[in-house]
Amino acid sequence: MPKFATLHHSILRCFHKCGTVDHLNQTTAILITSGLSHHAFFLADLLRSPTKDLGYPLLLFDRLATPYIFLWNAIIRSFSGSPQPQMALVAYSRLRNHSVVPDRHTFPVLLRSFSKLRNENPFQFYVHIVKFGMDFDAFVQNSLVSAFANCGFVECSRRLFTENAKKDAISWTALINGCLRNGRAAEALECFLGMRSSGVEVDEVTIVSVLCAAAMLRDVWFGKWVHGFYVLSGRVIWDVYVGSALVDMYSKCGYCVDAVKVFNEMPTRNLVSWGALIAGYVQCNRYNKALEVFQEMIIQGFEPNQSLVTSALTACAQLGALDQGRWLHRYIDRNKLELNLKLGTALVDMYSKCGCIDEALFVFENLPAKDVYSWTAMINGLAMHGDALSSLNLFSQMVRSGVRPNGVTFLGVLSACAHGGLVDEGLELFRLMRCDYHLEPKVDHYGCMVDLQGRAGRLEDAIKFIESMPMEPTPGVWGALFNGCMIHKACELGEQIGNHLIKLQPHHSGRYILLANLYSRRRNWEAAANVRRLMKGKGVDKSPGCSWIEVNGVIHEFIAFDESHTESIHAYVMLESVTAQLKLATYDLDSNILTFAIDGE
Prior knowledge:
Structural class: mainly alpha
Shape: globular
Mean pLDDT: 82
Strand content: under 5%
Number of helices: 34
Helix content: 55-70%
Low-confidence stretches: 1-5, 591-601
Radius of gyration: 31 Å
């Protein structure tokens, strides 16, 4: 027996040191050649190896004379938490083929795989649960509630929950999470209120789910109540998960200051909490701060995962921070981060928005897999760069590959058609969207079509298109038509639309400026001055322009007529020098530029 214990300890150490599949192969070969591959203890060790190559256990289980249920439960549990959750279902099938009877621990670990398998049918396993008499086991019932909800059967999940005689915090939280996974945040909060009224004690896991629901609904006041009543009062423990959920809730509700305050007060932080803050800054359009926090996180010794790098790439894309975006790309390669769909799409989007369309295409073509979001990012990138034909060709290639376009994809190709003057192609795509793909156009799609026809000079058609809209035209739609009037000098129609826009948005400075510019083009200086007087009389201030520039990997922010930046003096000196040289070269400045400058002063 001591020799067996020593051998068991030695092989266990070998399994724990298995860092690659080759090492695992060698250790498994020792098991087989020594005749120990049929022993349950060693197979259990194999399941715990760091490589998580779970194909071996299934093969070796066939060699067991007596396949113990605890081993089958172990392998099903491993598959449920792996990147191949469908193999948990295969393992259960093999279990039944060996005539092994499942116990009360089998179905909860099996049903856990349905959190990643939304298209599978849990009913087939429900039959087995009833057959083996486990349908009244509380542990199994809670797992069923979660599994049915995860697969979209929310009503079945509710029915099972109602039939549950003992509703505890776990079963309530399973139902709340099920509502969340199906986008029913309001129902999730109703379930939470029902949980409170039933007297069930609320724990940290429930609070995390409730804060997630408040974030989805952008209900900051409910979130603040949960923060005060449960967290600050000490009714639940303020751990890293509750703290991260609070940061996420405040960020998604647009309360960045509160999110930062919670983050700074957190007793401990992990990658989830850092990620919540970075994603929050991106959500609040504070991209520079997002990159600053990302750099601070690395300085503190945290290694970013795919989700965090994706958020940082999004910030780089919005700022045009190409140097930092390239550094992140090198980080991905250097640390061998798996280029999953979200990360690959973020890279394509970053390179496209930073002006490097060839690099975006290279990343896109080398993606191991492509979904509708990666295709859409590349289509939009080509459209943004004015390559309408390439954008349309890529759209056709996407359709041929079997990927179904969504509403955002159509926005990209319609925008490409508008900027490329491809009116007939745009009209056909709009028809395809409605008739072939049964996607109901939203107001942004109608805005693209108005822009398409306005740019092409088909102003009457654009007006008819607006009149046929099933929803009220937004200022953006009218603005697209106004832009067409400016391009084709349809001043009378433009004047009507300009005044209509001011009525729609009386406190929007841009609407006054556009109309003033229209009058300036007609050299109607008195009318332009009247518009500016009207704007000042209503107390409407023009928002100062803001821009970013990246120099040697550092993002610099400049605000119009602001001298707070350390390089502002040099920037204004250079601007005056350029203006003087333009005057010497008798450069004819556009009257629109003069209008904006006079208005800004």
